[in-house]
Each structure stands twice: as C-alpha cells, then as structure tokens.
Design goal:
This protein is mainly α. Helix content is 33%, strand content 7%. It has helices at 16-20, 54-57, 75-83, 91-105, 107-110, 114-117, and strands at 4-5, 26-27, 42-43, 63-64. The strands form two sheets. A two-stranded antiparallel ribbon has the order 1-4. It has a two-stranded antiparallel sheet with strand order 2-3. Helix 3 packs antiparallel against helix 4 (91-105). The longest helix has 15 residues, at 91-105. The structure holds iron/sulfur cluster (2 copies). One iron/sulfur cluster binds next to helix 1.
C-alpha cells in the first residue's frame, strides 16, 4: 500500500497523474471502459513504485504519499484505492461504493471546490 488518491479527485478526474506515472498504475485511464462510471481515479498499490511523480502533477493536491500520511477524513478512500483493480468484474463498483460512502459521510468537504478541498482535510 503506497500512494493514495483522495477526494479532491472526485469530480476533477483530469488524469494529469496518469500522464506522468511511469508504471501505469493509476486507473481508470480515459481510454478504459470504466472511466465514465468512476467518480475518481485509483492508484493500484501493488504496482505503485513510490516515485512521487503524480503528487506535483495533481492540480488539486489529491494525492498523499502513504496511508499513514493520509488525513483521518480520507481513510475510507485508502480502501477504495486498494480494492480497485482494472479488469476485475466488480472492482470499479466496489471502489465506487466506498467513494460514495465517503461522499455521503463528508458533505462538508464536498461543499468545498475540489481545488480548495485538500486544505480542509485536516490531519
Ligand atoms: S507514486 Fe509514482 S508509481 Fe505511484 S502512482 Fe504516483 S506516479 Fe505512479
Ligand atoms: S491529477 Fe489529481 S485530480 Fe487529476 S486524476 Fe489524478 S488524482 Fe485525480
């Protein structure tokens, strides 16, 4: 378990991180069937090599460098990143169900524009 995408990605999904990831471990990509149904992108922890390239590429500071550094308000999304696997039949649904639960649990964060949301994550 390594880098983690969190809620500023929800409704942003601009895929800047996908373009810089050297091992193609951030999904779904725009050219994958799951892209439209995914509310955010997920890092496949087993494939991430901890290079850090995605962090400065993200325009909304959605990516934390470890589960330990991920703020408490975002902990549910650690699991969402972990369960997502491109190709498994119910992977997107399982990850999306966790993302949906996060959205429902944090209306105060969702009310903030994505670009300003990370500043409100707390620790
Ligand atoms: S840390 Fe590197 S390998 Fe991991 S998701 Fe980011 S860009 Fe990809
Ligand atoms: S760059 Fe940030 S907002 Fe864009 S898809 Fe990646 S994690 Fe999501």
């Amino acid at each position: 378990m390594t880098f983690v995408i969190t809620d500023p990605c929800i409704h942003t999904k601009d895929t800047a991180c996908v373009d810089v990831c050297p091992v193609d471990c951030i999904h779904p990509r725009k050219d994958e069937a799951e892209f439209e149904q995914a509310s955010m992108l997920y890092i496949l922890p087993a494939e991430c090599i901890d290079c850090g390239a995605c962090v400065p590429a993200c325009p909304v500071a959605a990516i934390y460098d470890s589960p330990e550094s991920t703020p408490a308000s975002q902990k549910q999304l650690i699991e969402a990143n972990a369960v997502y696997r491109a190709g498994e039949p119910d992977a997107v649904a399982r990850a999306e169900s966790l993302a949906k639960a996060h959205v429902e649990a944090h209306p105060e964060l969702m009310a903030i524009a994505p670009a300003d949301r990370a500043a409100a994550h707390g620790k």
